[in-house]
Amino acid sequence: MAYGTLLAIQTIASKGRGVFATQAIAPDTVLETAPVASFPATERSTIDTTHIAKYYFVQPDAYRQGQTVDGYLVFGLASLCNHDNEPNAKIEWVVDEIGLWTRLISTQEIAAGEEVTIYYTNIEDYNFS
Q: What does the pLDDT average to over 13-32?
């Protein structure tokens, strides 16, 4: 299923769904801007028992410092990007007068047909069994 002209969602046998480039993408290209809804850290343990647990984000800086962090639901394709230790894209968090947004940005050249991947800040929290 194509979204815009740059990205499409495809099924991957070993991973489920993934986001793929439909054409060559240059480094530092904004692939998508999407709105975000937050939920408090006190509700993360409840959310972690649901299917949503595989799709929410945490703010990297606070998480790495061991702080209690809120969860964020990204309403865009970034929530379908798979993890890679050497990703070809990143999430940039943006706050403006409307609210919190994410930008999915390529960090290197991505070939047509290549999977778009990001680094999961809290990878140890995921249970992919």
A: 95
pLDDT of residue 60: 65
Identify the bridge partners of residue 20 per DSSP, sorted by sequence position. Answer: 8, 115
21: left (phi over 0), alpha (psi -120 to 50) or beta: beta
Q: Cβ distance 41 to 65 under 8 Å?
A: no
Residue 74 Rama label (left phi>0; alpha psi -120 to 50; beta):
beta
Domain made up of 2-124: CATH architecture: Beta Complex (2.170)
Rounded to 5 degrees, what are φ and ψ at 19?
Answer: -105, 135
Give domain limits for the chain: 2-124
- Determine the 3-state secondary structure of 95 from DSSP: strand
Overall pTM > 0.70: yes
CA separation for the pair 90, 75 (Å, rounded): 16
- CA torsion 41-43-44-48 (nearest 10°) is 180
- How far CA 92 is from CA of 11, 50, 101, 104, in Å, comes to 25, 26, 8, 7
φ and ψ at residue 107, rounded to 5 degrees: -105, -5
